[in-house]
Amino acid sequence: MTDQTRFVYDATKAVDPLGDLQEEAEKAVKHNRARVGSARPSSLLYTYGPGSIMDLPQFTIMPTGLDDWEPIWRRRDSLPPTIHAPRLRDVVRTMLYSPDAQLRPHPWQPKKNSRSAEGNDLGVPARVFPQWLRCTGCDMLGMLSQFDYKNTHPFRTDLATFEHAKCTGRSGNRSRKPMRRPAVPARYLLACVDGHLDEFPYELWVHRGQRCSKAEVPPLKMVDRTVGKGASAIIHCAACEMQRPMNEAQGEAGRAKLPKCRGRHPHLDAFEPRGCKNETRLMLVGASNLWFPATQSIIVMPESQQEKASDLADRIRTTLGDKLSKYRQHLDMIRDLLDGRVDVTGLSDHELEAAVEAACVPPATPEEQAEKMRDWDPVDLLVPEWRYLLLDILGTRVEDPKSGLSLATRQRGEQLQPEITRVLAVEKLRKVNALVGFTRIDDMDRVGDLPRRLVPLTRTPRPAWTVATEDRGEGIFLQLDEDSVAAWEKHILDTDLWQAHRAAHRRNFERRFSETASKVDPDSRLKPPRYWMIHTFAHILIRELALTCGYSAASLSERLYAWPAAEGREPAAGLLICTTASDSDGTLGGLVQLSEPNRLQRVVASALRKARRCSSDPICSMRTPKTPEDFLHGAACHCCVMASETSCERANRFLDRRFLIDLPGSGLGYFSAHE
To answer: Which DSSP string corresponds to 260-318?
Structure first.
């Protein structure tokens, strides 16, 4: 272990698929192709990022940490591309405690046609995980090396599979001619609250912590006749005839029978140097709590002069590195070194000198970054967006090619609700999303000790980059009247309904918040009433817009600007409904067309009218959490308000139609005064 790493790691076993292919080619032997599948960039960020388990047709794999992506990038003649989003980049650096971290896309290059070779040297490296497999023909349970790998078709990666070459079937009849049978992953794993993940120790489990008395390497079987009923399999040793069911490892009682965590990070192929003393938990390969991404995202806004100067200084510093201090007094040399890498041709000597001096300012120390991280609020990412969307537009349209943002003003329809004071058509937008780590067992929102629980993406303590995606799309921005929202919110805070939601949130927080976290006030995680109202409004608009805009409801997403006044930021009450795509051309404009005055007022009126009724009423309209209930919604269900996972930023929490409109027995609706 060196000063540049924080884990125990064997560098001779690095994952390098293309390097393995080259070695096999030099030996002039037949080899399997390295590519085993494909996925969309958004999927590799939110569902199957480094450390997760991705299902392929025949087996499962785990994308490796970003260290193993470096050999992929180094095979290119050009420098790796970066995504320009300074505001998000600065937040990522704070969360990663790395002052030089950059945002890079996934390694990928489009092909001219299906059989061309462009981009064959690019891809996301992965390892087979778990590496215990079960034969589907005879139930043999064994390590990866006991099975044959087959992947010979260059254009059918779905046919890649592991096979048991000499399977004689479940009867064990040795006189029967052996057959090749496919093998599937053994689906049990061990996980701990600090994000470690390990193979299940089947051999020690079936022998109750001891070695087999009959064989040094005992033949094991996993007998499972009731698939889909939890840990129903039975592990059987064919040598000593011992067997043990997997359901003994379930629940609180099962934890005491499991071994302590070894501190393994399989995506980094590394172990914690001081081990891990946490209890382990039984985890299934497809469990939803196996991997929770920790992501941050922004909608890129035009930069101010101050932001441009800061970004230029940062690019000079990261480009020149150690040469900056050496040549800081020689501007001609600085220009030569930056030629083709950072454009400074339009700067005078005085301006370049000022940028170089700013670049020489030492970056924040780890202690300063830790303090900044403690004080950081995710709302800080939204404040610049809100401020820019409130600026007056000269004329009817403004476009900024660098940020990719294009806004157009829209007149308010005569019958549009007066509470909506401003409408903008976001004709073009660019959204950048970055991955900073992940958690296991507990979602990032349920973790109060995030710096400790966040699993790193690299073995190095200060990663040079992290993976990000860039989406383009369109949207509609609505601003609500702040004075009416503030007055309504003040009234709501004193109601019995709000106190019931507040008490339910406390119960939910205490029951489901991470048990490893330090003391956190539940009220600090409760969204204010204006958030509940605007969130509900966004959901009913998504439902109504999907009927006429040409995009499915799952393709539309919300971005909420809803917070009261606080130190350093003004109050906000608005929302952006947008749709984005990873394609460079973005989307087709069907959503923006609905921002026209006559169309928008019909959409809003229809959405509010439909929200008055739900097929689950009166149960839905009168739903109020009472002890011991702890759900985080009121008059809202899948029949009337709730949206798909891709649309909602809060997993359908903090919703109540009664905050939006008056329902029978309730007079709390924000939009009801106008009606």
So the answer is: PP--EETTTTEE-TT---PPPEEEETT-TTS-EEEEEEEE--PPPHHHHHHHHHHHHHH
